[in-house]
């Protein structure tokens, strides 16, 4: 298994923002690893940044939000079998460092740095995975939906850190895939008074379908009077756009003792009105990874059927040869939900041999 001579199709990053479908070697599988045949792999905002901003290393294969079926076992793997349906959870914390001891293993100081440059990901027919990180996908949950586990875990984490309750009035700025998942998780937790601010019309429509109480365009959000809340303030804000101007305006919308959660990353840094943070006693936090329990709550939530997955996943799956185009459409806001890649090529592309 995994001999270097065996080949598979993958979407390979060539450099200069360009991807191409190529035959590459099957991943090499160590004694404690498994080989997983990919069913679906979601396109993450990270993938967009890595390709469109030319950060990825030429020759790398991206894609980390995958679900699949075990196709081969390393010599020491005893508790998994070929055919098991799995997703791959996070690296465990060391248990000894200060973040681990305070219940935050996702920011363990011993965590290996994210190796975006040498990444060998799941926009491919197979990936290698460490057996002790696997989670079993419930029989009732399609693998295509299970591929949402990682982004759902991220959304759950942002909601957990915010301390939001059903009594809160919530604003989400940015209705991309992450904003939509946070909206869906809030809804599933009984938090219904949620307004979504989003410039793209298709994404505002989608936000209403996923459960927003109201949608607005960013210009609808008022500037705040000095030292006082706006007329209709929010107690919790999830900033999911990553745009500096949206961050600044979102911070203006908070009520006394409100909580601001940074979720969307971006090139340009927002200016934070510290006087406002002081006078209104605001809390500003960042959310990036997962709750201490990791991904199992996300798998459970997906399996429960409580999330509107048909609204959260784009209806048209992306083929390997269609990935480059999909990245541009996602960046332009033209795809209002999570795009799922199937590791196949379209009939047209395979007919021309590309
Ligand atoms: Zn991701
Ligand atoms: Zn640790």
CA(first)-CA(last) distance: 26 Å
Radius of gyration from the alpha-carbon trace, in angstroms: 21 Å
Ligands: zinc ion
Number of helical elements: 12
Helix content: 25-40%
CATH-level-2 architecture of the largest domain: Alpha-Beta Complex
What is the CATH fold-level name of the largest domain?
Quinone Oxidoreductase, Chain A, domain 1
Give the C-level CATH assignment of the largest domain: Alpha Beta
Give average pLDDT, whole number. Answer: 92
Q: Domains counted in the coordinates: how many?
A: 2
For this structure, what is the CATH homologous superfamily of the largest domain? Medium-chain alcohol dehydrogenases, catalytic domain
Number of DSSP strands? 15
Supply the helix-strand structural class.
alpha/beta
Question: What is the string of SSEs from the N terminus onward?
Answer: EEEHEEHEEHHEHEHEEHEHEHHEHEH
Largest sheet: 7 strands, mixed
Q: What are the segments in which pLDDT stays under 50 over at least 5 consecutive residues?
A: none
Strand content: 15-25%
Overall geometry comes to globular
């Amino acid at each position: 298994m995994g001999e270097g001579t065996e080949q598979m199709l993958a979407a390979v990053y060539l450099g200069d923002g360009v991807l191409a479908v190529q035959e590459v070697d099957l991943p090499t599988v160590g004694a404690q690893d498994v080989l997983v045949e990919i069913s679906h792999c979601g396109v993450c905002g990270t993938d967009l940044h890595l390709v469109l901003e030319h950060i990825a290393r030429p020759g790398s294969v991206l894609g980390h939000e995958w679900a699949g079926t075990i196709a081969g076992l390393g010599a020491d793997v005893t508790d998994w079998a070929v055919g098991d349906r799995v997703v791959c959870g996070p690296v465990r914390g060391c248990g000894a460092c200060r973040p681990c001891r305070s219940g935050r293993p996702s920011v363990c100081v011993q965590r290996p740095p994210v190796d975006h440059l040498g990444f060998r990901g799941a926009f491919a027919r197979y990936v290698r995975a460490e057996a002790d990180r696997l989670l079993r996908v419930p029989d009732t949950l399609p693998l295509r939906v299970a591929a949402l586990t990682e982004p759902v875990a991220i959304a759950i984490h942002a909601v957990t850190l915010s301390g939001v309750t059903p009594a809160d009035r919530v604003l989400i700025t940015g209705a991309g895939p992450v904003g939509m998942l946070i909206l869906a998780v809030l809804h599933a937790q009984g938090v219904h008074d949620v307004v979504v601010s989003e410039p793209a019309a298709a994404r505002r429509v989608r936000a209403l379908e996923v459960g927003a109480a109201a949608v607005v365009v960013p210009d609808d959000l008022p500037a705040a009077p000095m030292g006082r809340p706006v007329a209709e303030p929010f107690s919790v804000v999830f900033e999911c756009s990553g745009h500096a101007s949206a961050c600044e305006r979102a911070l203006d919308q908070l009520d006394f003792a409100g909580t601001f959660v940074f979720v969307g990353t971006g090139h340009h840094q927002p200016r934070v009105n510290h006087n406002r943070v002081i006078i209104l006693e605001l809390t500003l936090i960042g959310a990036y990874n997962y709750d201490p329990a990791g991904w199992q709550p996300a798998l459970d939530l997906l399996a429960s059927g409580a999330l509107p997955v048909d609204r959260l996943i784009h209806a048209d799956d992306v083929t390997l040869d269609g990935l480059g185009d999909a990245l541009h459409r996602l960046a332009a806001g033209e795809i209002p939900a999570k795009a799922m890649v199937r590791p196949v090529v379209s009939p047209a592309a395979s007919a021309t041999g590309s």
